[in-house]
From TrEMBL:
Keyword terms of this UniProt record: Signal
Gene3D superfamilies per the UniProt record, alphabetical: 2.60.120.1130, 2.60.40.3140, 3.10.620.30
Record-annotated DUF3857 domain positions: 56-217
Protein name, entry field: DUF3857 domain-containing protein
Length: 638
């Protein structure tokens, strides 16, 4: 055993010497320190971005990465996105080496795939990606990649995340941005020990960043977004140009003015459509009623289809085009809905947003293009309405997890303005469940279940209702309903599309074994369907804040009809747990042959100090224990 360990250690040292002799001579952090807990090590990575003019830039990229195990294999594949009209990839090369430094493979042109980056709901995009794969099955192994990308627009400058994943080490990585003398580079640094170094080479101002010896990070449960804890540099221009449209992003207002320029004159509708809309809303008593009527009309008339060509990645189709064709992407459909609301006298604003359930909010202090989606904002005297115009089923005014609780850039006539979208609290995100269970002497039972889901808690069922067939819905229920072994006799869903939408789920379940028998006793866990199962690992020392992004409240009321001849021998007492993260209560009462169990769990969202993490673990442990409490019934024997 010792001899094998010694051999492995010698091989590891030899591999390190062969693959990175310069690192061994120069770095103070030992190989073991970078390897421990890592799936891959970036040995050396260089990114150089040169601004040639207002309409031209070049990126040169080179990296050497050692893959330590199968979880690091993703780093052995290179993806280079580009746009056929506005950018070009040249000089892609790659080589792989085994643990002894012997060449495994050198990329040929035929090895590099060039595929469409078209999304599943697109008709056509000129976005493509080149893919080069050097994955190998014997560890460790090392890959080298190099490429050059030229682009004919300068809206996007590098966003640098040298340690862009957990369990990834970095020996050395550099970013260099060159801008013509007299130009100004804006940048935002985060978690960078060595700040920017600025020089000039006679024609360009040169900005350089470097990181060294970054040990692998392991993102903590309920931790902040990775951009808060990993090294980061964002860069952006003041002035830029895309396909002849010149603009500025020095301020959010400036970026909004550029979007206004792209959208100018694109909100005109045919006269017959305007007349139809006015007739549709003639009897509306409030502005909100008008909005709902127009929104419903848009949902019934259009579908989401993306066609992204050149400037079309930023500029919407004309409203008249969408009106005649009945389709468009998020930009086109939002612009179309804006035009229709304008036709009936309702003011609305096109709004850029970073959409996605887990998408981070934009860096508000750094005006730049940080958005991937467009929605519509309708200001109201009392409360703003937000419209997701790409969905044929979404409730008017609902942001939800995809666009809620983050900043959007309103495009007003005066320019861009950052505002916050709707934030949903526990009272909005409810799961209210009522279960009536008739228990028989064998421990089986028939349960009727009524569950009301609201807000973010109804989103999964909303998708299930509108995008799955009944047989797929039934299969999903079997896979996701948490209950004792069961058969579904009946199920149904109904939905209400309010500002906070809701779905009611009705189930009839045949429970094969919801109680266990032992002699004359019957044991039943009254929490039939909401047992908490997840407890995060305890850590000796928490390093980052505890972040909870979802607030919700769950209430279960379970009524159990006990079989004749049984009485209650043991009943759990009232349980209550409270912490800064939430509250939990459970109580069981008996009335004749009926047991009633009520459980309420409310969780808060927010940001909490690292030293509160132990309280979160303790709270969840208490909930798991409380949810497992049992009622004991005993059979009366004459």
């Amino acid at each position: 055993m010792f001899a094998n360990r010694k051999y492995n250690w010698l091989c590891a040292v030899l591999c390190w010497l062969l693959l990175a002799p310069q690192a061994m001579a120069a770095e103070t952090t030992s190989p073991d320190e970078l390897r421990e807990g890592a799936n891959a090590i970036i040995r050396n990575e260089e990114t150089v971005f040169t601004v040639n003019s207002l309409t031209s830039g070049t990126t040169r990229f080179k990296t050497t990465i050692t893959i330590l195990n199968e979880y690091g294999d993703y780093k052995a594949t290179l993806y280079v996105p580009y746009n056929t009209k506005m950018s070009k990839v040249t000089n892609i090369s790659g080589t792989s080496y085994d643990r002894f430094g012997k060449k495994i493979k050198k990329l040929k042109n035929s090895d590099i795939k060039d595929v469409s980056a078209v999304s599943s709901m697109s008709v056509y995009e000129d976005s493509r990606v080149k893919i080069a794969d050097l994955e190998y099955s014997v560890y460790p192994y090392t890959v080298e990649f190099e490429y050059e990308l030229t682009q004919s627009y300068t809206m996007f400058y590098p966003r640098w995340f040298p340690q862009d994943a957990d369990k990834l080490s970095v020996e050395k990585a550099t970013l260099e941005v060159q801008v013509p003398l007299g130009s100004k580079l804006r940048y935002l640094e985060g978690n960078i020990a060595k700040k920017v170094a600025v020089s000039n080479n006679g024609t360009h101002e040169v900005y350089q960043w470097e990181v060294n010896n970054l040990k692998p990070l392991e993102l903590e449960p309920f931790g902040p977004d990775y951009r808060e804890v990993m090294p980061m540099v964002l860069t952006a221009p003041n002035e830029f140009e895309v396909d002849g449209y010149r603009g500025s992003m020095e301020t959010w207002k400036d970026l909004g003015l550029w979007i206004n320029k792209l959208n100018e004159g694109r909100d005109q509708l045919p006269e017959e459509t305007v007349a139809k809309l006015k007739q549709l809303t003639a009897n509306a008593k409030t502005t909100e009623e008008k909005v709902r009527l127009v929104y419903d009309y848009m949902q019934g008339k259009t579908r989401y289809v993306s066609i992204q060509l050149g400037i079309g990645s930023w500029q919407p189709f004309e409203a008249s085009f969408v009106d005649s064709k009945g389709y468009g992407d998020c930009k086109a459909l939002s612009n179309y809905t804006h035009a229709m609301l304008k036709a009936v006298g309702v003011t609305s604003h096109y709004a850029l947003i970073n959409g996605g359930e887990d998408a981070p909010d934009v860096k508000t202090e750094f005006p730049s293009s940080q958005f991937n989606h467009v929605i519509l904002c309708v200001p109201m005297p009392q409360d703003t309405m937000w419209l997701e115009c790409t969905s044929q089923t979404e409730a008017a005014g609902y942001n939800g997890s995809f666009t809620g609780d983050r900043h959007a850039l309103l495009i007003t006539p005066e320019g861009g303005k950052l505002v916050k979208t709707t934030s949903y609290g526990a009272a909005d995100n409810q799961q209210i469940r009522s279960i009536k269970l008739r228990l028989d002497e064998k421990g089986a039972g028939l349960a009727t279940v009524n569950t009301l889901y609201t807000g973010i808690q109804q989103e999964t069922l909303d998708g299930l209702m509108h995008h799955r067939k009944p047989e797929e819905q039934r299969k999903w229920l079997y896979e996701n309903v948490q209950a004792p072994p069961f058969e579904i006799s009946k199920f149904s869903f109904t939905q209400k599309k309010d500002r906070v939408p809701s779905v009611t789920e009705e189930l009839e379940l045949q429970l094969r074994q919801c109680a266990t028998l032992s002699g004359k006793r019957m044991f039943i866990t009254p929490n039939l369907m909401s047992k908490w199962r997840y407890v995060p690992d305890q850590k000796a020392k928490r390093l980052t804040d505890v972040v909870r992004k979802l607030a919700y409240v769950d209430v279960d009321t379970v009524e159990i009809e006990v079989p004749v001849g049984y009485t209650v021998e043991y009943l759990p007492g009232k349980i209550k747990h409270q912490s800064v993260f939430g509250e939990y209560e459970a109580d069981v009462k008996v009335d004749g042959q009926r047991i009633t169990y009520v459980r309420r769990m409310q969780m808060h969202k927010g940001r909490f100090a690292p030293d509160t993490y132990a309280q979160l673990v303790a709270f969840y442990n208490n909930v798991v224990k409380a949810d497992a409490e049992q009622v004991v019934l005993v059979k009366n024997i004459p």
